[in-house]
Amino acid sequence: MAITPDDVRHVAKLARLDFDEAEVARFAKDLGDILEHASKIAELDLADVEPTAHPIKLENVWRPDELRPSLTPEQALANAPAAEEQKFRVPRILEVEEVGE
Amino acid sequence: MSRFETVIGIEVHVELSTNTKMFCGCSNRFGAPPNTNTCPVCLGLPGSLPVVNEQAVRDAMKIGIALNCEVARSCLFHRKNYFYPDMPKDFQISQYDEPICFGGYLDVEGGRVGITRAHMEEDTGKSTHIGEGGRIHDATHSLIDYNRAGVPLIEIVSEPDITGPAHARAYATELRNVLRSLSVSDVKMEEGSMRCDANISLREPGGEFGTKVEIKNMNSLRSLQKALEYEEARQAELLESGKSVTQETRHWNEADGETHSMRSKEEAFDYRYFPEPDLVPQAPPLSLIEEIRSSMPELPASRRARLAEDWALTDQQIFTLTSVDGLLDLVSDAVERGTDPVTATNWATGDVLAKLKTDGVDADQSGLNGHKLADLCELVANGTLSTKLAKQVLITVMETGKGPGEVVEEEGLAQVSDESELAAIAEKIVNDNPGEAERYRAGEEKLLGFFVGQAMKATRGKGNPQALNELFRSKLSE
Questions:
Q1: CATH for A14
Q2: Residues facing residue B117 across a β-bridge
Q3: Mind listing the pLDDT tens digit for each residue in A39-49?
Q4: Is residue A81 a part of any domain in this protein?
Q5: How far apart, in whole angstroms, are the C-alpha atoms of residue B69 and residue B461?
Q6: Is the dihedral of CA A45, A47, A51, A56 positive or negative?
Q7: Contact B51 A54 (CB under 8 A)
Q8: Mean local confidence (pLDDT), B277-286
Q9: Which residues on chain B are in Cβ contact (under 8 Å) with A70?
Q10: Which of B18, B38, B54 is nearest residue A62 as measured by Cβ atoms?
Q11: I want to staple B152 with a disulfide (CB 3.0 to 4.6 A). Which of B56, B68, B126, B332 is the partner?
């Protein structure tokens, strides 16, 4: 399955990654090779095989609804590049804006 | 009315009131100081692993069963990837093509609404935008509190079966009633524990679906209806004038009563869902599904039918009793103590509700309970209090939590029913008003009200009006 440089740029953008043209070309080839390899599976008759999201047959790993200790706010914020009012401070969010009519 | 048909679908997010979060043991308590209910799992720290809260799975199934859904024999969690600081992991754990419940319906006023699915996911953190007006595009920066990140959330998606703003409100109201009866959430729209987003489009009657617009940010049932009314009119106007509707998300602004476009800078939504590798499939055993099914509480529709039959209440009274938190409990408790259901209901849906609204409190926060309501009704029934005085006593009870008997005693409010005392008052009034007495005797019977009114004035509202009516009638016919 062919991966085009545009596919790579699109996925890179969604993942917030920045590649130069040489990298885009290399990833297009590498990703294509990986999909090519995986597509060999399609040659098999898999009509009776369930899709496998997990290799281990394990279900319903649940925990009781009981409180466990949380971190202190100091611990929680210890790695934050910036904090204010005991909250994580982040740069202004540009993704969405409200516009008038 | 426009010539178009309105098509609405609603997505409701409900925060479960479990003790702990969806995937970690942090407290799920609303209103805690910022970032005090966080841990490596809900902060998305490297190496941490989520573990599913069993109670949340049970609650999800309970909701699905109440909404006549099928419960999946097997389902998965997926990662929904997006970049936004409200989720520190940069993805939200949700369900995608295999929800836990699907294919149900809810009967509401205006017609049955299909339920596409009800699935489990986690809530996001809460952002505060700092800067002018607190609005995102004027902000200099934002502050994030992750207490809410990871709180168990059930998303309930309706079919596009809703035919108008009033139908939408009826659906959301009934859904809230159902959720409340299940005790799985406190369903407070103003606190965000129940949130409604709506998709609305118009079409030629019976034609193809039109372009839909998603509207968000409605924080009450009333604003849900108002936002949809606004959007319905806006779209009709565009279509009538030959323009087209743009597919977009619009924000409801309560202050100006309009919806506003939200422009997204992301070219296209592409959440790149994939199965959450850190969680195994969910396959609720049949025995568990049956256990939940057999322990379901009575749902509002059946409760309403029972009230109509047992208590002979009107639809409107039943609707009010079952829609307002705590009112039905109040009446039930009073009835259990021997109060007539209709009397107790009249108080509850009348003066009690009015006072609760004025004070902005829930029934369980007021000084009144079923026991006191029963006492109050009894004081009216045995003639100690007139209805008017009882209303006064009710206010004091609700404000102070004192018993009605105590209030009557303290404020000297007991109705004067003592025959001799009232007879003396009546006699004096008749003697003081010979002209009116003459006219009454000449056949002007409506003057009886005048005499009773004078007597009420003389007793400062404490005279028993029935006794006074009788007294004057006999005195004036002497």
A1: 1.10.20
A2: B102, B157
A3: 888 888 888 88
A4: no
A5: 58
A6: negative
A7: no
A8: 93
A9: 26-27, 36-39
A10: B54
A11: B56
The pLDDT of residue B213 is above 50: yes
Tokens of A72: 């202190």
Q: Which domains does chain B have, with CATH numbers?
A: 5-288 (no CATH), 298-411 (no CATH), 419-476 (1.10.10.410)
pLDDT tens for B327-383 read: 888 999 999 999 999 999 999 999 999 999 898 888 888 899 999 999 999 988 887
Interface A:B, Cβ pairs < 8 A: 162
How many residues are given for chain B?
478
pLDDT tens profile B227-246: 999 999 999 999 999 999 99
Cβ <8 Å between B281 and A53 = yes
Residue B270 contacts A where some CB pair is shorter than 8 Å? yes
Q: Decide if A90 is inside a domain.
A: no
Q: Does B51 touch chain A (CB under 8 A)?
A: yes
Tokens of B349: 């849906």
Q: Do B155 and B118 touch, CB atoms closer than 8 A?
A: yes
The token duo for B98 is 């295999």
| pTM of this prediction exceeds 0.90 | no
Per the structure, the complete domain to which residue A21 belongs is given by: 5-42
- Are B151 and B125 in contact by the 8 Å Cβ rule? The answer is no
Amino acid at B372: K
Q: Which residues of A touch B38 (CB under 8 A)?
A: 70-71, 73, 76
Residue A49 resides in a domain? no
Contact state of B135 with A64 under an 8 Å Cβ cutoff: no
Q: What is the pLDDT of residues B54-96, one digit of tens each?
A: 999 999 999 999 999 999 999 999 999 988 889 999 999 999 9
Query: Is the Cβ pair B143, A16 closer than 8 Å?
Result: no
Helix, strand, coil shares of chain B, percent, nearest 5, are: 40, 20, 35
Strand duo B5-15 + B194-203: pairing: antiparallel
| Helices B404-411 and B370-381, packing angle to 10 deg | 50
Does B145 sit within 8 Å of A87, measured CB to CB?
A: yes
Q: CA of A33 to nearest chain B CA: how many angstroms apart? A: 21
3-state SS assignment for residue B130: strand
- Whether residue A52 lies inside any domain: the answer is no
Cβ distance of B136 and A16 shorter than 8 Å: no
Please check whether residue B141 touches A, CB under 8 A.
yes
> Is residue B145 within 8 angstroms of chain A, CB to CB?
yes
* Record: contact A68-B24, CB cut-off 8 A: yes
Residues of A in contact with B142 (CB under 8 A): 89-93
Give per-residue burial for B99-115: e unless 16+ CB within 10 Å, then b: bbbbebebebebeebbb
Taking alpha carbons only, the member of B46, B281, B224, B41 closest to residue B149 is: B41
Q: What is the total count of domains within chain A?
A: 1
Name which residue leads in pLDDT, B112 or A39: B112
Average pLDDT over residues B126-154: 86
Q: Chain B: nearest CA to A48, how far in angstroms?
A: 17
Interface of B with A in 236-265 (CB under 8 A): 251, 260-265
C-beta separation of B53 from B61 below 8 A: no
- For residue B332, with 0-12 CB atoms within 10 Å meaning exposed, 13-18 middle and 19 or more buried, which class applies? middle
